[in-house]
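User: Before I run my own analysis I want an independent prediction to cross-check against. Here's the chain; please return only the structure tokens and, at the end, one sentence I can use as a sanity check.
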Amino acid sequence: MERWRVIGPEGHDIYEALALEEVSMESVLAGGDPIIRFWYWKGDSASVGRFQCIGDEIDIGYASARGISLARRPSGGGAVYNGEGEEILYSVVARTDMGSPSIEASFRGVCSCIQHGLGMMGIEAEFEGPANIMVDGQKISGNSKWIRKRASLQHGTILYRPDRRAMNMVLKLNEASSCHGTPSKPREVTGIKEHSEVGFFEALRLLMDAFSAGKRHYPGTWTTDEANRAKELEDKKYRRMEWVFSR
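Assistant: Structure tokens:
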């Protein structure tokens, strides 16, 4: 049985977080242990999926005027607003030969860990294919994948206390886009705090426990080489406007 490296919880801005996502993928592709990682935001940001047109999905003027960082993820999916203290983030990186036989089955398997964690908080959640988790008909978690060679990364958000006004102001939530990426569809959202009295970091801990349950795992950290590589990717790729505005 594989041993999983469990990293976190850590606090990152959007660019640090995305760089570490790519480092996680590189580590697993190089033969490293599969990774489960949890983090929370430092600062507010808005991000788009790899193939989305950022101008179609985000009100760039509003975001810039309020110091909201703009970013592009290497994964697919729709545009999201990332508010500090408003959501919990995770990623799972594994070789594809460890995965489920289909993309939806893989989504369902990882999302079942989120459902289990929410259940420990007294929240009954349902999986809505291909990649959402719902509570009382409202979205509490959105997830996306990045598949590269022989490894797959799934990451997503679990909303804790969403700022609906900020979401509505930052995100355009178009039903159609001039690009070929996934259009961001408006959905009613909810958060853990609206259904449970569990505190932010306690919720984070319960979710980490749910993800590691039944797996051989150990607490992990980033190696010096990984940290240096993440800094390089952050500066040379994810913070660069050529990447952010590549579509």
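Sanity check: The two ends are 42 Å apart (CA to CA).
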